Amino acid sequence: MTEDIGNNPAFVGVTVTPNALPLPGSHPLLVISHGYNGNWRNLSWIAAAMAEEGYIVASPDHPGTTTFDQNPIEAKKLWRRPRDISRVIDFVSDSPALFGVTDKSRISALGHSLGGWTVMSLAGARFAPSVFIKDCQNHSKRGDCRLIEKLGINDTYSMDKLSANNRDARIRAVVSLDLGLTPGFTPQSLNAINIPVLILAAQGDQLAELPAGQESGYLAANMKPNWRHYEVIDGATHFSFMQLCKPGAENLLNEESPGDEVVCQDGPQAKRADIHQNLVAKISAFLNSSLDYSAPAGGTRLVTHQKL
Fold first, then answer.
1. Residue 175: which of 67, 46, 263 has the closest Cα?
2. What is the rounded CA–CA span in Å between residue 38 and residue 67?
3. Average pLDDT of 191-204?
4. Which of 22, 52, 53, 202 could make an S-S bridge to 299, C-beta 3.0–4.6 Å?
C-alpha cells in the first residue's frame, strides 16, 4: 500500500510505501539539508530518486530555520545546522532495524541554499563571520546578506561557534545546490577540502538574490579542481531545486503571501520537471562514482523526517 507524502495544494509530493522493511545488505546513506525556512518536503524529489537507487535517505528539519518552526531564538543558532546532520548520521547508522544497515564507507550529504552552506561546513569549509559581514558591506542587496541579524551571524556568542571546524570525516562526498553565505568561507579551508564536491548553480539569478559568481562560483574558484565539479544548470532559478509546483500554485501562494509565488518560477521556456530529471541524472552519477557504488534494482527506505 502506497501513499503520497509532501503533497499539498501548491506542491507535488512523492509516492512511498509507509513502514517498508529495509532491504537486506548494507546501503549508502545520503543526508539532505533544506534551505532557509524550507523543509524536508522541498527536496523529496531527489530523496525519492536516490532511495530508488538503493540509498538510505534521511532528510531532517532544522529547528528555527524550517517552514513550521521559525523561532527567532533558534534561528540565530546557525552553528547547530551542521551538528543536526551529524546527529542524523549517528541515529540512522545506529538503527539498522529501522533503516537498514548503513555502509559507513559510503556516506554523503546534499543541501540546497542554506542547506548547501550546511553540507559544505561538514565537508571542512570554515566560516568566518567577520569576513562575511565585511563582504556584505559591498553587496547589501544580496539575499543572504539580509539574514545577518536573523541568523545571528553578528552575535558575539554565535560568531565563535560559527567559526568552529564542523568537518565530519564520515562524509565522503557532498552535493551543493545553489548555496548561500559562501563568501564567509575562508579560501584556505576551501582549498583544503579533499572529498569530491558537486557544485550546481542556477542559471537564472532570481531577483539577484544569490548571484552564481559570488556564491557557487566563489566555492569552485577556491577549491582544488580535482576535488570539485562546477556546473551552472540551464533554465534553473534558485527555486527550481525545490519540488514541483501544481497548476495554479503561483496564484495560491500569492494570495496567502504576496511575493512567495516566486518559488514556482523557473527560467524562460524551462520546465521544472525537465530540470529535475537533468539534476537526478547528474547527482546520481556523481554520488555513485564518488562512493564507488553500483545501484541495484529496487530500493530501500526513505527517512522523510526525524525530529532532532
1. 46
2. 5
3. 96
4. 52
Q: Which three cell numbers stand for residue 213?
A: 559568481
Q: What phi and psi values does residue 77 have, to the nearest 5 degrees?
A: -100, 55
Q: Give pLDDT tens digits for 87-97.
A: 999 999 999 99
Q: Which triple of cell numbers denotes residue 141?
A: 542587496
Residue in the block written with cell 527536496: 43
Query: How far is the C-alpha of 96 from the C-alpha of 168, rounded, in Å?
Result: 21
Can you give the length of the chain in residues?
Answer: 308
Q: How many CB atoms lie within 10 A of CB 217?
A: 16
C-alpha count within 13 angstroms, C-beta hemisphere, residue 198: 25
Extended beta strands in the chain, E state: 3-5, 14-16, 26-33, 56-58, 101-112, 171-177, 197-202, 228-233, 302-303
Averaged pLDDT, 107-114: 98
Q: How many helices (H) and strands (E) does the chain have?
A: 11, 9
CA distance 139 to 165: 26
Instruction: Report yes or no: 57 and 50 within 8 Å, Cβ to Cβ.
Output: yes
Element of type H or E holding 40: none
**Tens digit of each residue's pLDDT (9 = 90 or more) over 156-186:** 888 889 999 999 999 999 999 999 999 999 9
Cell of 52: 530508488
The three cell numbers of residue 239 are 527555486
Lowest pLDDT segment from 54-68, 137-151, 241-255, 291-305: 291-305
Residue type, 113: S
How far, in whole angstroms, is CA 231 from its chain's centroid? 16
Tell me the pTM.
0.94
Please report how the helices 80-93 and 114-123 are oriented relative to each other, as an axis angle in degrees rounded to 10: 70
> CA-to-CA distance for 220 and 136, rounded, in angstroms?
20
DSSP codes of every residue in 228-262: EEEEEETT--GGGGSPPBPTTHHHHHHHHSTTGGG
